[in-house]
């Protein structure tokens, strides 16, 4: 039976949680149900594939997968489900996430991973992108996104004013 969870936030290790939590925080703001899952393309490959194959049957609509180093997790999930996969490259290795950005972004033709930027900004944008996808079938969610963007405009205007006031 479907569990009513719409988004799965997957990560390769619990050491990724501190950043991937940013994704959950945004989904919370929008009242979207989600789960956290740790599974690894390298350390628990069979389990990661099983998890991916079960996603659609569980009613999940979008998957956000964060990983560091040679980050194959989003690609392995994408190869084993028809759901959209958003990849978040994490800055945990001596190469500062460039390695993960390349491994996620350089998927060969046939199996896409929608790759966002490295780290916290990427984790946040992954949530917003998932909301855009879910919003295609949910006008209320689109309205919430509109309000969210309007708040950003007010915030920028406030920062602009405060900067100009400082310079007077
Ligand atoms: C990746 O290896 C994980 O996504 C994590 O970012 C990185 C390091 O994992 P730990 O050694 O901290 O468990 O698979």
Which SSEs are present, and which pair or pack?
Layout: E1 7-11, H1 17-29, E2 34-38, H2 45-54, E3 62-68, H3 73-79, E4 85-90, H4 98-105, E5 114-115, H5 120-135, H6 139-166
Parallel strand pairs: 1-2, 1-3, 3-4, 4-5
Bound molecules: 5-O-phosphono-beta-D-ribofuranose.
5-O-phosphono-beta-D-ribofuranose is lined by residues 11-13, 15-16, 40, 67-69, 90, 92.
Describe this structure as you would to a colleague.
This protein is an alpha/beta fold and 168 residues long. The protein has helices at residues 17-29, 45-54, 73-79, 98-105, 120-135, 139-166; strands spanning 7-11, 34-38, 62-68, 85-90, 114-115. Strands 2-1-3-4-5 form a 5-stranded parallel beta sheet, sandwiched between helices. Helix 3 (73-79) links the parallel strand 3 (62-68) and strand 4. The model has no long low-confidence stretch (mean pLDDT 97). The site of 5-O-phosphono-beta-D-ribofuranose (RP5) has 11 residues, from strand 3. The site of 5-O-phosphono-beta-D-ribofuranose has 11 residues, from strand 3.
Radius of gyration over alpha carbons? 17 Å
Stretches where pLDDT is under 50 for at least 5 consecutive residues are none
Structural class given helices, strands, pairing? Answer: alpha/beta
Q: How big a fraction of the residues is strand?
A: 5-15%
Instruction: Report how far apart the termini are.
Output: 63 Å
Unique bound compounds: 5-O-phosphono-beta-D-ribofuranose
Mean of residue pLDDT values: 97
Number of strands: 5
Q: What is the molecular shape?
A: globular
Order of helices and strands: EHEHEHEHEHH
